Amino acid sequence: MATRYGGGRQPGMSSSALGCISAPAPHLLMPPLNLDMSVYSRHFTDQSPVMGCGDLIQSVLAPPPSQQITAGAEHHDASPYMGSAMAPVPEQDRQQVLDLAATAADTLARMCRAGEPLWVRRRGASSEVMVPDEHARMFSWPVDGGKQGGGSTPAAARTEGSRDSAVVIMNSITLVDAFLDANKWMELFPSIVSKARTIQVINHGAASGHLGSGSLVLMQAEVQFPSPLVPAREVMFFRYCVHNAEEGTWSVVDFPAEGFQLEALQTSSVVKCRRRPSGCIIQDMPNGYSSVVWVEHMEMVGEEKPLHQVFKDYVASGTAFGATRWISLLQRQCERLASELARNIADPRVIHTPEARTNMMKLSQRMITTFCANISASGSQSWTALSESTEDTIRVTTRKNTDPGQPSGVILTAVSTSWLPFSHQQVFELLADEQQRCQLEILSNEGSLHEVAHIANGSHPRNCISLLRINAASNSSQNVELLLQESSTHPNGGSLVVFGTVDVYAIQVTMSGGDPSYIPLLPLGFAIFPAANPSPAATSESSGNGESSPGNPDVPATGCLLTVGMQVLASAVPSAKLNLSSVTAINSHVCNAIHQITTALKGAGASRAEPASVGGSN
């Protein structure tokens, strides 16, 4: 890909696109890594004890020792306002915030218990949607907007409210600890929380003898959706954690933090949101599991920018940042962490020790985090459309990178989102299966992929990390290329397939217990989310597979939003200027990839309808 786009590439790093495409790696003496074409089990069966999950998150999600914080402890000192007279919340206002926290916790509890008319389950949706008028009738916030410095809330302000629930394989104490630590929180939600920090600790908490109960912190975060067409959102909020001894539950509730001299901390490049009382109630279950009820309630602040048609309904309905997306990711990540404790490794010749398994999972987690951040509309990235067509969804951006962990030089990224008239599971199965993916001409380079190592990440067979050998005519025993791939899926929360080429020797060092953080990654992949057709008329003639029928708008269409993200190292020189031919080539490649994916799905008999958008023209 890099050579095709006229750019250089970092030695030992292939900047290939979409799976099988790969430029030759430099010749290496083959390290003692077993690259047989073996097939490994895609399931883990060992159930870890409850204390194992807790120990695991402390090690896997832990930041460096200097940044570690635990619920109610003094490790929050990384905050720039700790002990400062310029703290956003001065001591005289501390009791007011504690009172607001108690009110927010009560509001969350009532919202979790309530049924209709506050909550309505839409046909075909997994979560419940909040009725704003009913919420306004049932709840009031004790501090009005004027006193908090923002004036009264405009009557036309758009709100998003949703609720969902799930059982996760993690105990409540471990979950609460992760929610109170900004770094662990980001690790727990890598595709949603792009930035997070603790600004100030209001109360350390140790109520009712429970470490962390009563903890109250002021936090700032940026949340993202994996597409540049959906603006990232900045939220400033208080987070309060409290244990209810009578019910045996923990409440983690966020509530708005306006009015405390926070303007200087906010940026102007992302959408501002007011986080109304939101969060989750966690109850321990046997065997280390927890039952979690999740409520999301956001209010848009100021005027919103117009959204592309492909995402307009999806975002307006609250689905893009709704409860289902949060809790499904929590469920997947908890399974991922628990799977690290499994000891039924299929072949000890490949993954020798638990430390090697942990290192591979850390490397793959960084790949996921990097991919989602690089294809999203973060405030630090500027995206450009390649045409003036309103139907064009392709956006490109460039960045000059000198930081470790990614190739050094000029990186070109292209992303496109299309609505496809196929279920998100159908699309996921096509793209997650490396053999099916390589049948697509644009996603292969006359080569194939064979799995040489595997780590199961959950109960679904496709929730896994795979180390794949690229079999191409140019490869030999002295010239081997590997592909690291992670795929994850949830029936309601969407799917990810992310992959990138990795240096053989670097993988060998990683499996031998070495530090994987230095390995440069330039991941590519797909994000797939179930969604109704953004333009219902487009499916009026479609048939089969449950799509909507003409004149019946109440029946949601079966389809998905597919985001294709591609990155290439355009030049290994950070100061180099981008060649226009590189942009043209990557644009053409993205368009052709979407076309071939759609054609392959049609060929499988899934649907005869055309996708709503496939980006720009070739």
TrEMBL record:
Please list the residue ranges that the record marks as compositionally biased, kind Low complexity. 540-552
Keyword flag Transcription: yes
Q: Which organism is it from?
A: Panicum virgatum (Blackwell switchgrass)
Domain START positions: 90-339
State the UniProt keywords alphabetically.
DNA-binding, Homeobox, Nucleus, Transcription, Transcription regulation
Query: What's this protein's name?
Result: START domain-containing protein
GO terms for molecular function, please? DNA binding; lipid binding
Task: Give the residue ranges for region: Disordered.
Answer: 140-159, 536-556
Key word Transcription regulation present: yes
In terms of InterPro entries, this protein maps to:
HD-Zip_IV, HD-Zip_IV_C, START_lipid-bd_dom
Q: Name one Pfam family in it.
A: PDF2_C
Transmembrane regions listed in the UniProt entry: none
SUPFAM superfamilies per UniProt: Bet v1-like
Q: What domain of life?
A: Eukaryota
